[in-house]
Amino acid sequence: MPLLHGKGNLQHACAKCSEYCQGWEGVFCDVCGNWHHVKCEQLEIQILQAFKELPEVPYICKSCRSDERGSFSYDGSISRLHKAAKQGIEKLYIYVERERLFMKEDLAYHNVRVPKYSSDVQAQALLQEYCPSQKKNAAKVTKDNNSLFSAVSVALGGNEKLAKELRVRCCIEMVVHESFYKWQDNYEQLTKCAPDYMESCLNCATPDEDSCVWTMSALASVVRRHIESIYPAVNGKMDRAISILNRVFVPRNKIDSGENLKIFWSSSKKTTITPGSWVPDMFVPLVDMPIVPLSPTVMSPFNTPSRVSGRMRKPTAKVMAITSPREKNQMKVVVENTDPGSEDELHDGDDSDFEMPSSFTLEPADNEEAYMNKYHMENIDINWMDKFTVVAKGGNPLTGTAFLSAQEIFNVLTTETEILPNIPAGKKEDVYYVVDNSRNMRYKHRRNYFQDDCGRYNQKSGTTCKSYYLLTADNMLQPMIKHGDKYCRESKRVPASTGVSPRGRGRPPGRGRGRGRGASEQKVTKWIPMEPQPDEDKIIILHRYYSQLEIDPTYKRRISWFINLPERLEKGHSVFLAEYLTKPVPGLQLPLNRKRQHTTTMTKAAERKSTTDAGSDDEMTDPPAKKKRMDGDATETLSTEPDAGEAEEQPENPPAQDTSPSQDENQKSHTLEQDDGKGAEGSKTGQKATTMEDTGEAQTAEES
């Protein structure tokens, strides 16, 4: 967006106040070609900052984007989106970002119950014939390619005023949240009954263009309500579109209170219906209104011959001769039209525009599968549930039982020629995929989406690692660490400075209150900066995201991608590597799940209480194996019990233990006397320490 700053831009005058854009910022309108003050446009700081971060997005002034009442014009918005859609999907991405900045965040509507709807007779006949369990009735909407948005508008507010706004919001929803809809569990199933998703986005941005299941799924998120799709079995029960299109679409975000919106697939054509060749071309809403029976003068062309004669006043049917035996509902029947009644007999809610043909022919096909609609049945060769048993295509096996190294990831991402548009559906075990990542790269500073059909991942255990590497001339990676503002390649562990801790009270080295080893045995890491510091254009960054399934923690996934790659490695700019590992990796633990050890020091009061408790317990159960270590005049007792999940190691010839109560008590009292006598003098007497794992179970200190 062109902006003006400072006081030197006197050649541009504001179109509203006619003053020069001086002293504050000015914005240029892409429609009217005039400059405007930011103050005159009443731009919010958030919107202005968003346009600054998106310089390729042109600005539109308030007058050009508003209607006569001063509200946001959805007619102009859909025209601008249609103009962008003609130039391709990339242009549509830019224009969608602009439109969503000016629109209100949520759809504003009021649930209205209309006492009287106009009935769609043709859709009502289909509903009563093929969906008799539905207790609602089909309301009439305009018969055009905007019927889906009109149907949802009627179901929400009782009229079609929201149709254009719904189309605009639906287009924005499909483009912005593309990853959400393309990574649904039923994506592969819906592709059998709908065009390509990106093509559907372009169609949604075009006025009077057809809608599909992708549009209906996005509309559920726009209105924040469940949308129930009802598809009649006109083509017979063998039509697999029945199991695919009869579903409930769930919103992406929060759900408003209210019942499900029911949308019925119908047809606007008034020609003869032949089972196996019926194609829906419009949608109607199912609403609550009094059930109105069909007029005697209007007969549905979708009924079976047995029901046709019962609904006509004086039916006249001529059954033609049949040479081969057939079932009763497959007879070829020609029914002549009866004498039409007067218009007064028609109900007010009926569609008076519906005209019955002079005669029609109902001829079910001998083989329904031969007449299945290609639009619904093309390339349906696997069942939806087979994705759990069919191996996903396009993957490469992992070598060994571990993830790829950083060098291997670099070689794969920069040389792979087969790049998948998304992670394929199916079984994925010990395999990796190279997937297009242009969607996440396009929307920077936003959350990345790496969705698949494996299930829900544990978000609490997911971790992200960021690593720095120096890229050499022969495409080799040299690892290094960024410490502060310096790049360091090598690290050195040096002993820490020795000395008596202020809180140590004269304890010998190794007997302090710190964790693990004593102060003299601890080592610190010293970073050695690289000399000279490498250039920024030679440093690449590797991001690795680890996650595991909630229901099966042994099933691990890692997503890896590079940033700051040089231009000569253009293949690795917009791709990521998805690895799936089902076998446990030795030593592979997520940072959040790492076990930590610490040492606690017991006071003498707690020590005596612990010793007393241990003495009473010795009479009931056998004490665990202990190991003594002498250090000067003090005795330290360490537990040798194995950790959880590790094999317990038993000595070949365990020493005999004397559990005599008299000897045990004498030894305990002797130890306590040593501690009381030497602790006050500040001699080198250690205090008993108990080492325990961070498993939530404290081990009781005992003297043997």
Keywords:
single chain, 704 residues, alpha+beta, Herpes Virus-1, Cathepsin B, Chain A, nine-stranded antiparallel beta sheet, five-stranded mixed beta sheet, 18 helices, 24 strands, globular
Describe the sheet with the most strands: 9 strands, antiparallel
- How many structural domains does the protein architecture include? 4
Measured distance between first and last alpha carbons: 80 Å
- Which percent bin holds the helix content? 10-25%
Family: Belongs to the vertnin family.
GO molecular function: zinc ion binding
Protein name: Vertnin
Keywords: Metal-binding, Zinc, Zinc-finger
What does this structure look like?
Helix content is 24%, strand content 18%. It has 704 residues and is of the alpha+beta class. The N and C termini lie far apart (80 Å).
Layout of SSEs?
Elements: E1 3-4, E2 26-28, E3 35-37, H1 38-41, H2 45-53, H3 74-86, H4 89-102, H5 121-130, E4 137-138, H6 147-157, H7 163-176, H8 178-182, H9 187-190, H10 197-204, H11 213-223, E5 227-230, H12 241-245, E6 247-249, E7 261-266, E8 282-287, H13 305-311, E9 317-319, E10 333-336, E11 359-362, H14 374-377, E12 396-397, H15 406-415, E13 431-436, H16 438-442, E14 463-471, E15 477-483, E16 486-495, E17 523-529, E18 539-548, E19 556-563, E20 575-581, E21 597-601, H17 604-618, E22 626-631, E23 634-639, H18 661-679, E24 689-693
Parallel strand pairs: 5-7
Antiparallel strand pairs: 1-2, 2-3, 4-8, 5-6, 7-8, 9-10, 10-11, 12-13, 13-20, 14-15, 14-18, 15-16, 16-17, 18-19, 19-20, 21-24, 22-23
